[in-house]
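RECORD TYPE: inverse folding
INPUT: structure tokens
STRUCTURE:
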């Protein structure tokens, strides 16, 4: 886990050097709460120990940090404070958006978004069911935090990841950004995250540029 966090710091630099504008990382899922308590405690301590290092890197390199947590109430209060401190202090940075998915699950994000929409319908903030479309729904997703930063009107770029890189040899999404990945290009690597290298990233980007994205057309 420690090597994984260290490699995240490396990957942030690689992405910034290569001109990537948004990097979204699955740091801790809602399902991870089912792991052994000793491992969970270690991971929480890891977040605590590295939050300041990530913040310093973000401030130095004009990086905005967004915390995407579909069930933030499960996080210890002191961890929540540290994570949201990174958000607050980097909110005006513009070079790269680093989205950290912590206590995040794609299904719970969709459920939470739906509840908010239903509540707005009940309170009259949404006037008609016909007003509910993809554009409106995306406003209620956690990724709306970084969507608001861009002036580009191309929704396929702003609202959804262009490329998903899944390491560890697993061939599944593991409840990650289920709504947003509808037309995302996917690459699966048979190596664990701590071994992921700059060359791997470049190769994945080269593969991505050769793919034809038709969006169903």
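DESIGNED SEQUENCE:
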């Amino acid at each position: 886990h420690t090597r994984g966090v260290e490699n995240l710091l490396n990957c942030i630099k690689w992405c910034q050097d290569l001109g990537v504008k948004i990097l979204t990382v699955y740091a801790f899922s809602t399902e991870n709460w089912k792991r052994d308590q000793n491992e969970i405690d270690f991971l929480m301590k890891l977040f605590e120990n590295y939050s300041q290092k990530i913040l310093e890197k973000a401030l130095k390199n004009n990086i905005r940090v967004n915390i995407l947590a579909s069930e933030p109430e499960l996080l210890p209060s002191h961890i929540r404070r540290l994570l949201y401190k990174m958000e607050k202090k980097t909110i005006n940075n513009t070079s790269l958006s680093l989205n950290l998915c912590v206590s995040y699950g794609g299904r719970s994000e969709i459920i939470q978004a739906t509840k908010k929409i239903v509540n707005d319908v009940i309170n009259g903030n949404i006037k008609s069911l016909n007003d509910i479309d993809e554009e409106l729904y995306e406003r209620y997703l956690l990724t709306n935090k970084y969507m608001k930063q861009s002036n580009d009107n191309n929704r396929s770029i702003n609202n959804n990841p262009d490329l998903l890189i899944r390491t560890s040899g697993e061939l599944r999404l593991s409840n990650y950004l289920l709504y947003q990945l509808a037309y995302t290009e996917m690459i699966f690597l048979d190596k664990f995250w701590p071994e992921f290298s700059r060359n791997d990233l470049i190769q994945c980007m080269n593969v991505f540029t050769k793919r034809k994205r038709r969006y169903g057309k």
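NOTES: The first strand starts at residue 22 and ends at 29.
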